[in-house]
Specification:
Blueprint lengths: L4 H9 L11 H26 L6 E4 L6 E4 L5 H23 L1 H6 L1 H5 L7 H18 L4 H26 L7 E7 L5 E3 L2 H11 L12 E2 L25 E2 L9 E2 L2 E3 L2 H20 L8 H17 L17 H26 L3
Parallel strand pairs: 3-5
Antiparallel strand pairs: 1-2, 3-4, 3-8, 6-7
Helix pairs in contact: 2-7, 3-6, 7-9, 7-10, 9-10, 10-11
Length: 351
C-alpha cells in the first residue's frame, strides 16, 4: 500500500524521495473527490439556474451601491467548505459512538487521529449544516439536494480509493484462502494452512466476539486475486504483523488477506450509481426525486458491503445490526418515501 507519496512514487517509478512523505495518499484522494464532486455540483446548479429552477441571490454591492445577482453555482466553494467542515465533525462524532470503548480510553487521540471516520455521520451533519446555509443564501434546499446527489456518490467513491491505497482499516473480513508470508507477499493457502497461521499470528488479527471472522474464497478464474484478497502491506495504521527485515515507518502487513471492500465501493459508486443518477437528473423533474434515488442506492450499496465487514453490533433483541446497517436501512426507507410521494403527486397534476 501507499500511506504517503514517498511509498507511492517509489512503488510506481522506483524513485526514493523521502521528503514526499508529508503528502498523504488518503488526503490526496479525499481532495480529488471534493474537486470532482464540486465540478459535478457546479455543472448541475448551472443547468438548474439556466432552466429557471433556482433563482439568484440579489445583493447590494457595498462599493458600488448597485444590486448584483449571485447564482448558486458561484457559491460552490462555500458549499463545499461548509460540507467539508460539518462532514468531518460528523464523521468523527459518529465514529466515536460506533467505537465507544476505544474512544473513552483515548478521546483526544481518537478525535485527532488520521483514521476513524464514519461516512454516514459526515453525511448527516453536513446535510443539516447545508440546510441552514442554503436558507442563508436563499437557495431552495430541495434543488440543492438533487444537484448534489450525483456529486455525493462520485466524491464518496473516489474517497474510497484513498481508504484502499492508504490501507486505513476500512476493509472486509478475512479471506482465509490467502495468507501472508514473512516478507509480506500473498500466498494461496489451504484451510489447514490458514488455521495454522491463525493459531500462530492470531494476536495480530482482528477478533470479533472471541472469533476471527473469515470466509474461504479462492478467486474465480474470471477475477484477479486482488479483487477478493488484499493483505495491505505497509498500511497506514500499521495493523497486522511486522514484515521481516522491514525498517520502514509503515512496516506491517495483515497475516491473512481481507476482502477489499473499498475497491468494491469505488467501482459501484463511480461506474454504476453515478452514471445512473447523472443520466436521470433531467428526467426526474419533481424536487427530491433524484435525491431519494441517491439515498436508496447509497443505502443499498452500504448495507450489502456491511455483510462482509466487521463493525460493532447493537443488541436490538432479535436482530444485531451495525450502525451502518441501521442508518443505511433508514436511508433506503427515506429514499423510497421521497420517490413514491413525489411520483404520486406528479401523477395527480393534470398534463
Amino acid at each position: 500500500m501507499y500511506p504517503d507519496f514517498h511509498y507511492l512514487i517509489r512503488g510506481l517509478f522506483g524513485i526514493d524521495i523521502p521528503g514526499l512523505s508529508i503528502l498523504k495518499t488518503f488526503g490526496f484522494f479525499v481532495a480529488l473527490g471534493f474537486i470532482f464532486g464540486a465540478l459535478a455540483l457546479q455543472k448541475e446548479l448551472k443547468r438548474k439556474a439556466k432552466a429557471g429552477l433556482i433563482q439568484p441571490d440579489i445583493r447590494i454591492n457595498k462599493k458600488t451601491g448597485q444590486s448584483e445577482k449571485i447564482y448558486p453555482q458561484q457559491r460552490v466553494s462555500d458549499i463545499i467548505f461548509v460540507a467539508a467542515i460539518a462532514g468531518f465533525i460528523g464523521a468523527k462524532v459518529f465514529n466515536a459512538l460506533e467505537t465507544w470503548s476505544d474512544f473513552i480510553q483515548d478521546p483526544i487521540g481518537s478525535l485527532f487521529s488520521r483514521s476513524g471516520l464514519t461516512f454516514y455521520g459526515g453525511l448527516i451533519l453536513a446535510t443539516v449544516a447545508l440546510y441552514y446555509f442554503a436558507r442563508k443564501i436563499k437557495l431552495d434546499f430541495r434543488h440543492l439536494c438533487d444537484a448534489a446527489a450525483p456529486a455525493l456518490i462520485l466524491a464518496y467513491g473516489i474517497g474510497r480509493l484513498g481508504c484502499h491505497f492508504a490501507g486505513d482499516g476500512d476493509w472486509g473480513i478475512y479471506n482465509s484462502a490467502y495468507v501472508s508470508q514473512a516478507d509480506g507477499t500473498v500466498k494461496t493457502a489451504t484451510i489447514e494452512e490458514y488455521n495454522q497461521v491463525a493459531a500462530e499470528k492470531g494476536q495480530y488479527m482482528q477478533h470479533f466476539e472471541g472469533k476471527i471472522p473469515h470466509i474461504y474464497y479462492p478467486a474465480p478464474s474470471v477475477l484477479p486475486r486482488w479483487f477478493v484478497a488484499m493483505n495491505y502491506k505497509h498500511n497506514v495504521n500499521n495493523e497486522g504483523m511486522p514484515i521481516a527485515g522491514d525498517q520502514e515507518e509503515y512496516n506491517s502487513v495483515l497475516p491473512v488477506a481481507v476482502f477489499p471492500t473499498s475497491v468494491w465501493e469505488f467501482l459501484a459508486c463511480v461506474f454504476i450509481i453515478f452514471p445512473i443518477l447523472w443520466s436521470l437528473r433531467k428526467k426526474l423533474n419533481e424536487p427530491l426525486q433524484l435525491f431519494g434515488l441517491y439515498l436508496i442506492f447509497n443505502g443499498l450499496e452500504r448495507f450489502l458491503v456491511e455483510k462482509v465487514r466487521v463493525n460493532t453490533r447493537y443488541d436490538l433483541g432479535f436482530i444485531h445490526p451495525t450502525q451502518a446497517e441501521i442508518i443505511s436501512s433508514l436511508l433506503i426507507l427515506a429514499g423510497i418515501i421521497l420517490l413514491v410521494r413525489k411520483t404520486k403527486r406528479s401523477r395527480a397534476i393534470p398534463a
